[in-house]
Design goal:
This protein has one domain: YjbQ-like (Jelly Rolls, Sandwich), CATH 2.60.120. It is built from three helices and eight strands, in the order E-E-H-E-E-H-H-E-E-E-E. The chain is of the alpha+beta class. Strand 5 and strand 6 form a beta hairpin. A five-stranded antiparallel beta sheet has the order 1-8-3-5-6, with helices on one face. Strands 2-7-4 form a three-stranded antiparallel beta sheet. Bound molecules: zinc ion (ZN). The site of zinc ion has 4 residues, from loops.
């Protein structure tokens, strides 16, 4: 069995944002040479997510509005976590959107359903953060 891993780096210039990272993940898969197996992709921070959904800008605005309703950023004093930090909402948003995705690798490609793409979800940005890609198989 082969094993491969790589860390990807992302800096979202705003507090929140979604980035389609499918091309970078596909580069990792090509680089690994693995044709059959499993690919794990996870955020390495507790205020950002990796998730799979549609690359459609209206849906991304809907996610943003929905998450702001669930866990509004302000007033920051509403959260017990906010003392030295002001990012309690980011932890909650990340929890809803998830930490990682696992995608089957078949014939050297990501075995997606129709419209599936991999996204990095940032909820406390304006600094560099990491995503891990781990692939096992043969
Ligand atoms: Zn925090």
């Amino acid at each position: 069995m082969k094993s491969y891993h790589k860390e990807l780096f992302f800096t979202v210039p705003e507090r929140r944002g979604f980035v389609n990272i499918t091309p970078q993940v596909e580069d990792c898969l090509r680089e690994s040479g693995i044709k059959e197996g499993l690919l794990l992709c996870n955020a390495m921070h507790i205020t950002s997510s990796v998730f799979i959904n549609d690359d459609e800008s209206g849906l991304h605005r809907d996610f943003e509005r929905w998450l702001e309703k669930l866990a509004p950023h302000a007033p920051t004093t509403q959260y017990a976590h906010n003392g030295y930090e002001d990012n309690a909402d980011a932890h909650l948003k990340r929890q809803v959107m998830g930490r990682e995705v696992v995608v089957a690798v078949t014939a050297g490609k990501l075995h997606f359903g129709t419209w599936e793409q991999i996204f990095y979800g940032e909820f406390d940005g304006r600094r560099q953060k990491r995503v891990l890609v781990k692939i096992i198989g043969e």
